[in-house]
Amino acid sequence: MPPVNSWATAGNATATAAGVSRADGMLTGVSNLVKYRGAFGPVSVGASYRFGEQTGFSDGNAAVLAAAYNAGPLGLVVTAEQANGITVAASGRRDRTRTVHLGASYQVGPTKLFAVVRNFDRSLASGAADLESRTAWVGAAYAASPALTLTAAYYHQDIRSGVRPGDDPKLLTLRARYALSKRTDLYAVVGHAKARSGAVGVSRDDAGFLGSQSNVAAGIQHRF
């Protein structure tokens, strides 16, 4: 079952202003995990649960459910996840993030077309307004050879509430990936991000600057 992230190129657009940044990121790494995966003809399903190992039973835990349908050139996927933070003693509250993805792909010869919609909702332990956004992206991945894949994708984020509402950053990315083996790839990525107002960045973890920003990255990835 392909994860939704596999239909994306690298990078997230981050809105920033007056030292306040916002990046409604994806759940990318999980420890202390138990997982189930099953295949039933063209349908595959999966479930994962992370144990938070905290004093509070639900603190730090995360749960993910996913289902995919693949028949011929058509692929459909839906995922739902919830990740909990740690309860703050002063308020008795904790951060909680809920995310839903709906995606579709269609294979046309050596080219895979894809489209994904992602709904993000994070409630904060501080009691501040929820961070709500909806991100949509479309793109195409072209298999130029058995080893070389070229991908282009365009992202648009609709920031609905919380920090930076209405800035709605956009991101265009181009990626080339060359497979040295089943687990090792060489890659090169070019990205350009722009926000409606304020500053924007192409890094998920760093604060943005200027009204638009471009980046170039290259490297090697090995999956253990």
Record keyword descriptors for this entry:
disordered N terminus, 224 residues, 11-stranded antiparallel β-sheet, 3-stranded antiparallel β-sheet, single chain, globular, mainly beta
Tally of strands: 14
Report mean pLDDT, rounded to a whole number: 82
What general form does the structure show?
globular
The value of Rg in angstroms is: 19 Å
Short description:
This protein has 224 residues and is mainly β. It has strands spanning 14-17, 20-22, 33-40, 43-50, 62-71, 74-84, 96-108, 111-123, 131-143, 148-161, 170-179, 184-194, 199-201, 212-222.
What do these coordinates show?
The chain has 224 residues and is mostly beta strands. Helices cover 0% and strands 59% of the residues. The protein is built from no helices and 14 strands. It has strands at residues 14-17, 20-22, 33-40, 43-50, 62-71, 74-84, 96-108, 111-123, 131-143, 148-161, 170-179, 184-194, 199-201, 212-222. Strands 3-4-5-6-7-8-9-10-11-12-14 form an 11-stranded antiparallel beta sheet, with no helix packed on it. A hairpin with a 2-residue loop joins β5 and β6. The chain is globular, with a radius of gyration of 19 Å. The two termini are 19 Å apart.
List the SSEs and their pairings.
Elements: E1 14-17, E2 20-22, E3 33-40, E4 43-50, E5 62-71, E6 74-84, E7 96-108, E8 111-123, E9 131-143, E10 148-161, E11 170-179, E12 184-194, E13 199-201, E14 212-222
Antiparallel strand pairs: 1-2, 1-13, 3-4, 4-5, 5-6, 6-7, 7-8, 8-9, 9-10, 10-11, 11-12, 12-14
